[in-house]
């Protein structure tokens, strides 16, 4: 996803990890999409229903921001216009709190 | 006749009666398994072949659970892959006439509406008028069209009628929550703020988990109705969910208007983080393969910030 790649590059130096996890169980389609869009970030494959069970993912995309203490501090369902800005703000605030 | 022969005759007659009465449930098992077959069809890349298989699928499973999804996939192939709008419209109209499954009819109307909404918005409203007369037992399509018309700021009375119908047709809690949210939004657009607040507050309570869009509508309605305190509280609850720009701007202006000191602003933010932490679920560790075949391990609570984007290919 281009927006994930952008997020990845912006915060790589700060040690922020951005992971894309495909929950569709349609690996061939994901492979094709990743090749077409030339993703740089790795796409993880969950074809065992782990995300549904442990992260209550029922609709995609669902974005979870995990804080340094291991909590899903922010969770967004859907990815509308402006979501990238919301995530950046959240990461910026979390980074500021880390150093505070 | 011999008694054993009579017994045979009676058993056969009983079998015939049972067969006639329960014939629908006793038809020979459909070829293969519905779910598995549908998944297989999903892997086909050639559009015409896919459409062909789907039409076969629809006739093989006349009362199947996946009918509306099959129709939806056909729509996608005709509109997005083959890009033949005329063909799709013909197909959709045919389907609407002969289909009895409400979800399938609703799916076709949904697609027809979207086609019009993009190309000829003035005509899109006519689809809305049509489904009010056709009754379809599918709350979501009335909700979808009503809300979309309202968002475009047009035909608010028609939008209201559609949302009214969707509220009446709602069966699940989720359905009611969505439809009340839409109806509340339309009241808001019409300037009927008390009615809007009533619907939106009810909607927000019906949702299993916080619904950002619904809370946004509610916060705006409170503001327009002159209820600053509740508006502020609602924007605050949105901020607990995430750093939404519009919510942050709203509370910032209100704090400025009320001359919040820097200390009070800090207390506000501290409170936000406390609430966020209180409702946050712990992230679960995992180890997953990547497309490239490598393994990525995620261990929470190691002092880093991680963004997990759960997605599926479009």
Explain what the structure shows.
The complex is a heterodimer of chains A (100) and B (314). With 100 residues, chain A is an alpha+beta fold. Chain A has helices at residues 2-11, 27-37, 50-54, 83-99, and strands at residues 17-22, 43-45, 62-66, 71-77. A two-stranded parallel sheet of chain A has the order 1-2. A two-stranded antiparallel ribbon of chain A has the order 3-4. In chain A, helix 2 (27-37) links the parallel strand 1 (17-22) and strand 2 (43-45). Chain B has 314 residues and is mainly α. In chain B, strands 2-3 form a two-stranded antiparallel ribbon. In chain B, a hairpin with a 5-residue loop joins strand 2 and strand 3. In chain B, helix 3 (47-60) packs antiparallel against helix 4 (67-81) and helix 10 packs antiparallel against helix 11. Chain B starts with a helix and ends with a strand. The mean pLDDT of chain B is 90. At the A-B interface, helix 1, strand 1, helix 2, strand 2 and helix 3 of A face helix 15, strand 1, strand 2 and strand 4 of B.
Summarize the structure.
The complex is a heterodimer of chains A (100) and B (314). Chain A is of the alpha+beta class and 100 residues long. Chain A has helices at residues 2-11, 27-37, 50-54, 83-99, and strands at residues 17-22, 43-45, 62-66, 71-77.
Q: Please tell me what the overall shape of chain A is.
A: globular
What proportion of the residues of chain B is helical, as a percent range? 55-70%
What pair of chains forms the biggest interface? A-B, 64 and 40 residues
* Strand adjacency order, main sheet of chain A: 1-2
Please give the radius of gyration of chain A in angstroms.
Answer: 14 Å
Report the sheet-strand fraction of chain B.
5-15%
Terminal Cα span of chain A:
32 Å
Give helix and strand order of chain A, one letter per element, not per position: HEHEHEEH
| Helical run tally of chain B | 15
Order of helices and strands of chain B: HHHHHHHHHHHHHHHEEEE
The end-to-end span of chain B amounts to 70 Å
Number of strands of chain A: 4
Rg of chain B, Å, rounded: 27 Å
Secondary structure category of chain B: mainly alpha
